[in-house]
Design the sequence.
DNA sequence: CTGTTAGCGCGTTCAT
DNA sequence: ATGAACGCGCTAACAG
C-alpha cells in the first residue's frame, strides 16, 4: 500500500537519496559497495521508482498516446502490434484511447492524453481536422495516419487508397469480370471515397460504363457488408464480382452471399482490402489488396520517436525505411469469369 | 511546447495559485468574478492541468492497469470493451499492456504498471502465480479473471469452463451425435483443461466411451483449429461433430473442414465457446456456448473500482450484479445427426 | 473567501 | 565520489 521511496532505500542502505538516484539512473560513478547495498535495499523493499515524480522532474512521461476508433477493430489492432513492436525496448509505453468515430470524443480523448503529458501522440484513424491537429501539435508532437500534412511537429502518412481501389477492380477486370459491384466504406471517410474513385477509374480505363446501381453503401464492418449484399441481390442488378472497401466488409459479404444461395467464388468473385490476418482463415480465404498495416504501425511509431528525440533526425528516419507497396494477394474468393 | 502552469493562470487572472486550484477542482467556494477571470485565462493559455503533478500530490493516478496477452485477441478486446464501458465517466483511464503468454514478460509488465502508479490492476488473462498475485497486491489492488483467490486486496472471477464444456458436448449428443471430437485449447491453460473435463464428463454420463483419438491439440487460435482438423482427418478416425475449445478455434476448423471437402453442418457439426461478436458472421454462423465476455469486463472493472474506493463497499458491489450464465446459442454450424 | 506555506518523490545542481 | 538543497506543478493545511 505505502510504497517505498528513494529515502527509504537511502536509509536502509545507509547512503543519501542522491546516491540512490545516481545508481538507479546510472548518471554517475558510485562506489561498488554502496551500489550493492542500494541494490539489496531495492530488492528488500520491492522498490519501484515513482514514474509520476520522475516525469514531473524530467518533463518526460515516457508515455505515448494512441488514438484509435474502436478497441476491437482488427485493423487498428494489427497496426497497434506494429507500434508495440517499434516501442519495444525504448522505454516508451503506449496508452490507447478510442474515439468511436465521434469527432467530439476524439478531441476530448486527445486533450486527455495531453493532460497526461504523453510525450507524443499517434493517430491511427479518425477525422480530426488539420486545424485541430496543428493546434494540438503546439503542445505535443503528433504523427497521424490518413492525413496530408507535414509541419515541424506533425507528420502524417497516407495509404494510396485510390491506387488500391484501382488495383482491386483491375484484378477483377483481368479475370474477365465486367459486372463488378462495389461496397463502399464509411460514407464520409477519406479512404472510402478514394477507393471508390479508384474503382471508377479502373472501370473507365477499361471502357466500362459506371453503373450507380452496382455501388452500395457499407460501413467498413461485417454488418455493412452483409446488408449491402442483401440490398444488391434484392435490386436484381446482376453482378459476377464484388470489390469490398475492406476485408471486414468482405467477411460480411461472404455471409450475405451464402444466405442468398450464392457461392464464392463459383457464382461471385470477392476481393477485399487490407489483408487482415484473419483473411487467411475466412471461408473461403479472401483475395485482397494487401496493405502493410503492421509495417505502417512500426513506421508511425518510429517517426514519432524521431520527432520526440529532436526534429533533426526525424527526416532521415522517414526516408530510411520506405513502406512496402500495395499488392494483390490472390486467395480462393476470386476466379476467372465463366459463361 | 512549454506548457502553462497554475502559476501562469494565477498571474494572468490576478489571483493566487491556490485559488486557481480551488476553482479547477471545485474544492471550495470562490468569488464569481475570480472564477470567470480564471476560466478565461485557462482558455487563453490553453491550459491543461499536469496529471503527473496532480498524482504526485494526491497519490492517485486515475489510471488502471490492464494486463492482456495479445493486443489483437478478439476475446480480450471484447472484455476490454466492457471495461471501457464501466470506466466511462469515472475519470479512470485504462492503460493496456500485453504479456504474450510469456510469464516473465507478464511480470515485467505488471511491475511497469506499478511503477506508473496505477490505482489498480486488472488481469484479463495470463498465468501469474497466486504467489506473485498476492505479493503484487501489497502495492496495488488487483482483480483477476481466471483465478480462485479472494483476499482483501485481490478479487477474482472465473468462468465455469467445465460446465461449458459439458453443455457443448451435451448439445451435440442431444442432436444425436456420438462420434464427437474435441479440439483442446492451450496445453497448460486452466480453462482449456476444464473444458476438456466437461467434454469427457458429458460423454461418460451419456454412456459413451472416451476415445483419445478424437481429442486433438489446438491453441485457442484459428491456426490451431485448422491444423487440428487436418490431423483429425488424416488419422482416419470418423467423427460427425466437433467441440472447439473456443470460437477462434472454430473459425479455423471451419476452414480446415472445407479444405478437406467436408461441409458444415451437412457433414460435420461444429460448436465453439465464447460467442465472439464475429461468430454471427462466420461462414456459416457458429453455434457456440455463450459466455458473458462483455459483462465480465464490466464486472471486473466495477469490482476493481470498489476495491479502490475502499474495501467496505466492494463486497456489496460484487453481490449486486450477478453475471448472466452460460447459454447455448444455436446457429448454423450444427444440425441433427443423420444416417 | 483567499493568499501563504509546505510537501508529494525524484533528479540535479552545487558544494565539499 | 557523495551529501545538502532546490524545484518540477500541484493541492491541502494553515492563517488571515
Sequence:
Amino acid at each position: 500500500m505505502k510504497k517505498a521511496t528513494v529515502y527509504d532505500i537511502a536509509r536502509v542502505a545507509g547512503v543519501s537519496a542522491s546516491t540512490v538516484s545516481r545508481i538507479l539512473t546510472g548518471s554517475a560513478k558510485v562506489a561498488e559497495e554502496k551500489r550493492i547495498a542500494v541494490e539489496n535495499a531495492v530488492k528488500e523493499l520491492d522498490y519501484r521508482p515513482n514514474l509520476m515524480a520522475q516525469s514531473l522532474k524530467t518533463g518526460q512521461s515516457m508515455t505515448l498516446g494512441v488514438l484509435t476508433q474502436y478497441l476491437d477493430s482488427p485493423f487498428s489492432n494489427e497496426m497497434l502490434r506494429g507500434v508495440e513492436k517499434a516501442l519495444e525496448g525504448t522505454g516508451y509505453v503506449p496508452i490507447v484511447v478510442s474515439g468511436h468515430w465521434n469527432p467530439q470524443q476524439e478531441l476530448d480523448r486527445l486533450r486527455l492524453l495531453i493532460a497526461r503529458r504523453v510525450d507524443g501522440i499517434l493517430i491511427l484513424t479518425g477525422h480530426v481536422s488539420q486545424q485541430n491537429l496543428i493546434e494540438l501539435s503546439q503542445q505535443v508532437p503528433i504523427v497521424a495516419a490518413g492525413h496530408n500534412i507535414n509541419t515541424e511537429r506533425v507528420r502524417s502518412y497516407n495509404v494510396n487508397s485510390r491506387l488500391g481501389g484501382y488495383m482491386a477492380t483491375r484484378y477483377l477486370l483481368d479475370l474477365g469480370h465486367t459486372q463488378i459491384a462495389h461496397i463502399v466504406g464509411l460514407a464520409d471517410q477519406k479512404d472510402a471515397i478514394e477507393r471508390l474513385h479508384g474503382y471508377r477509374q479502373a472501370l473507365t480505363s477499361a471502357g466500362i460504363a459506371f453503373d450507380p446501381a452496382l455501388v452500395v453503401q457499407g460501413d467498413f464492418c461485417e454488418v455493412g457488408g452483409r446488408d449491402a449484399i442483401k440490398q444488391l441481390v434484392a435490386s436484381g442488378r446482376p453482378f459476377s464480382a464484388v470489390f469490398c472497401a475492406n476485408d471486414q466488409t468482405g467477411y460480411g459479404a461472404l455471409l450475405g452471399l451464402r444466405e442468398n444461395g450464392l457461392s464464392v467464388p463459383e457464382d461471385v468473385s470477392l476481393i477485399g482490402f487490407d489483408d487482415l490476418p484473419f483473411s487467411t482463415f475466412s471461408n473461403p480465404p479472401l483475395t485482397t489488396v494487401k496493405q502493410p498495416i503492421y509495417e505502417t504501425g512500426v513506421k508511425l511509431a518510429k517517426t514519432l520517436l524521431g520527432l520526440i528525440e529532436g526534429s533533426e533526425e526525424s527526416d532521415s528516419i522517414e526516408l530510411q525505411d520506405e513502406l512496402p507497396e500495395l499488392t494483390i494477394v490472390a486467395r480462393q474468393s476470386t476466379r476467372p469469369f465463366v459463361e
In short: Residues 293-309 of chain B form the longest helix (17 residues). The two ends of chain B are 75 Å apart (CA to CA).
